[in-house]
């Protein structure tokens, strides 16, 4: 990373924090004006490559300096807006940057298949705006700016989901429901930020934490906490605030589902950690109570209930959508432990889950591209007709269950160890039960793929085929990453531990 920083012009490296957000934002309207979707895709790809490179530069700076603080317009915080990169949000920046790059590659054939040619430039423009919003939420050090970027992300996401209506009209209803609930979540969040401003007189998150530490907490900050938790819980699809997610994932274009499932809820989870640990602090009584009675309990219930709901779905995308709710429950359980080990395990599962779901939804997109797969029964025999995509789906599915030799096992193992540190045997039992339920719904799909007869055409078996290279390459990278990071888990474990250490210190 240091080498990369030296290769870049000094001006670019010095402004990496703001360029991370500005580049996709500037390129978004340019993409919208392009005459064809392919040119708009090339612009999106350029933005994604630059973002991934800048994220690596920031990783090097954080490794060397600890915290990177960028003052917009030369105005020092708390008066000016600060972009702040530390050990907590650098894993999220890397995740959004690299998953965004892989998903952009994947988009070329997927978007061409699902979006009308005349709408593709606007589609890629909306994607770049969404990309901007996710990066902005992650990097900003200003509480109100978090709200602004959350809304930028949400508005573009509603558009992206709705554009799936060209193939399935239910995408319009899903987008509308997402709009209503997303607006409620944003309203709750901004009300909470307003209460914090009333109590502290500042919007800079570091400064808010300082004022609260000096002056203590009041009923106003307790109300702020409640509103912020509900607002971010909705954005993160925390049970039972998840009702927007299954339809949004099931009916959105395949590219959108793969991108959102890998990034959006993870960014919201990061913001929740930032507010809980960096602003309110876990030592505060009402915060400490929330760990067990809100996050741990609801996370555990979500793991079981959502996994059980996934078993009864017939659309594989809805299966994986409910699975995502369950996996958010794993992260919430780690957060709810209120310990460094628990938070580290939650962060590790966040990164691992992005790899699992990205590959799974990409594989489903490959099946849909070739055979229009929309039900579990239509997966029959695809192991023989699309062996590469089926293998990627299998590896990632086994990782979702938590089978050894996959990253899913690694993060669940760390969660179990963290639960045992607290003597939470009930959490261990819930983790095992949820994994067994995952085995059931993943097993249903794998049985259809590998054990059933392949589809026929005019009485003859359909010949084996491969999805386009732009689908196979990113899908295979994510699928193989599920195995690679099991045998070489140290980089991800280091990032997760560093993130937990950054906000908890010696606690």
Most strands sheet: 2 strands, antiparallel
Structural class: mainly alpha
Low-confidence stretches: none
Q: Given the C-alpha coordinates, what overall shape results?
A: globular
Order of helix and strand elements from N to C terminus: HHHHEEHHHHHHHHHHHHHHHEEHH
The averaged pLDDT comes out at 86
How many strand units? 4
What is the alpha-carbon Rg in Å? 22 Å
Strand order of the largest sheet: 1-2
The proportion of residues in beta strands is under 5%
Distance between the termini: 30 Å
- Total count of helical runs of at least 4 residues: 21
Helix proportion range: over 70%
SSE layout:
Layout: H1 2-7, H2 10-14, H3 16-32, H4 37-65, E1 68-71, E2 82-85, H5 90-114, H6 120-139, H7 143-162, H8 170-200, H9 205-215, H10 219-235, H11 245-251, H12 254-280, H13 285-311, H14 316-336, H15 340-371, H16 382-385, H17 387-401, H18 407-421, H19 425-451, E3 456-457, E4 460-461, H20 469-487, H21 490-504
Antiparallel strand pairs: 1-2, 3-4
Helix pairs in contact: 3-4, 3-6, 4-5, 4-6, 5-6, 5-12, 5-15, 5-20, 6-7, 6-12, 7-8, 7-12, 8-9, 8-10, 8-11, 9-12, 10-12, 11-12, 11-14, 12-14, 12-15, 13-14, 13-19, 14-15, 14-19, 15-17, 15-18, 15-20, 15-21, 17-19, 17-20, 18-19, 18-20
